[in-house]
Amino acid sequence: MNSFKKNLLKKRYNAERRFQWYGKIAIGLALSFLAVFMFQIFSKGYSAFQKNLDSNRSSL
Amino acid sequence: MNLILVTFIILLAFTSYYFGRKKALVIQSSQRLTALPKFYGYYLAAWCAAPALIIFALWSVFEPSIVKTFILQDYTDQNLTKNELQLIYTKVKALAAGTYTGNITNFLDESANKYIQLKGIANSAKVAIILAILIFSLSFAYRSVQKNDRMREPVEIFLKWVLFVASLGAVLVTIGIVFSLLFEAIRFFQAVKIFDFIFGTHWYPAKTFVRDGQPDPELMKDAFGAVPLFAGTFFIAFIAMCVAIPIGLLSGIYLSEYAGRGIRKYAKPIIEILAGIPTVVYGFFAALTVGPFVKEIGNAMGLEVSAESALAAGAVMGVMIIPFISSLSDDVMTAVPQNLRDGSYAMGATKSETVKKVIFPAALPGIVGSILLAVSRAVGETMIVVMASGLAANLTMNPLESTSTITAQIVVILIGDQQFGDPKTQSAFALGISLFIVTLLLNVIALSVVKKYREKYE
């Protein structure tokens, strides 16, 4: 196998690896969007529940 | 009364089903059955319920208008307009129901008595007719059961008609929606020139609101220019697609071609959660978290960013749309036959080359379909835009400014008090029909694209 073919093969395998990483990054992004979203909603919503409980308790 | 009647018909239908099945078993002892026993039951039940329910529905539809003509016959000699007649009829009905609070004239009282009388006659006639039909059709059906006629074919013809009516209903509803949009839009275009609407660059319908009187035609000319709305709609949809198409498509490819069974089993449903979150929640997420975040970053970079930016709305909308593209394109690519893949590998292609050159073209119709679905979601999305991108219709191409979309403006127009004959209200219908036409065009274009570039492997 001459060096030209070797280089081509190397290039193609690199492209293959890159493509696979694109997919992984895309899935990671989608999942992290979901995670950020959930985190934001629950971290903000959690305190609202607590405040409500406190005010109920003080009125009792 | 109606409820009792309908319940009676349905109960009778159930009873006749069991009766028919029993009868079939009795017939079986002496001669050969023409169908399974349950078809004897279905046959009787269909003959029992269908004619009676059809007559019942027709009667309920036509009864009020017939009663109305009878009542209003007494008023024909008074030269009243259509609206006045309608008012009188409403008064009579209220008086008959005992909820009328105005002063009662002799004439009205008479009409109300007549109304009650007519209603009574109509009710008893309805019961009598339906009972007669029930007896007639049931005895007819029972006779053919006794004669042991063919039972399966009539039942299947009946089912075919039920399916036909159901699909007819769906089509009619669609046609009705389009026409109601169209008629209101035509009335709008009588007040505002269609040219001003399509090419005007200034959208400010509140300007035409004038207390007591007709708005100035000069004002109308400059208030309903829809260009900023079209521009805003496509701009925000474009930002959304910039987020959704790469992420959705690549994760769809990864899920279908690379991911192991374990990853696919968990990642796919988790990503689909994104589509299940209500758009209102996305809306306040965009308005309260992403919007200020974008503004902060912009300010840190020395840019002027409004808190309600097209970028925030578009980005969040894109995240919402990701699963539509990823899930659908994953399904489509998984459905590509394995021998295409095997052929490509056998020629020495790498996996990514196979995806790009073989699987993607083969799955193109489905992928374009998924993108199209995503675009129509983006164009029709309302809540995120209302909350995160503002309501002022700016004509801008700057993603950091606030813009508005067609759907958001329809919301603005139709909340609060409005008059139906007002061009401001009717402009919502004009916007609606233009949105409809745009999505229709998108569909047509996408179909022709698919036809042209599709690789057929059959």
Could you list some keywords that capture this structure?
heterodimer, A: 60 residues, mainly alpha, 95% helix, rod-shaped, B: 458 residues, MetI-like fold, 2 domains, 17 helices, 77% helix
Describe the fold and architecture.
The complex is a heterodimer of chains A (60) and B (458). Chain A is built from 1 helix and no strands. With 60 residues, chain A is an all-alpha fold. Chain A is rod-shaped, with a radius of gyration of 26 Å. Chain B is an all-alpha fold and 458 residues long. Chain B folds into 2 domains: 2-150, no CATH class; 221-453, MetI-like fold. Helix content of chain B is 77%, strand content 0%. Chain B starts with a helix and ends in a 5-residue tail after the last helix. In chain B, 33% of the residues are buried. The mean pLDDT of chain B is 86. The A-B interface holds A 12-13, 15-16, 19-20, 22-27, 29-31, 33-34, 37, 40-41 and B 246-251, 253-255, 258-259, 267, 270-271, 273-274, 277, 281, 285, 289, 319, 322-323, 326, 350-353, 355.
Low-confidence stretches of chain B: none
Query: What structural class should be given to the helix and strand makeup of chain A?
Result: mainly alpha
Task: Work out the number of β strands of chain A.
Answer: 0
* Portion in strands of chain B: under 5%
| Largest interface chains and counts | A-B, 20 and 29 residues
The average pLDDT value of chain B, as a whole number, equals 86
Per CATH, which architecture of the largest domain in chain B? Orthogonal Bundle
CATH level 1 class label of the largest domain in chain B: Mainly Alpha
In terms of topology, how is this protein built?
The complex is a heterodimer of chains A (60) and B (458).
Chain A: H1 3-59
Chain B: H1 2-28, H2 37-72, H3 82-97, H4 106-146, H5 152-191, H6 194-199, H7 217-223, H8 227-258, H9 261-276, H10 279-300, H11 310-334, H12 338-346, H13 351-362, H14 364-380, H15 383-388, H16 406-414, H17 423-453
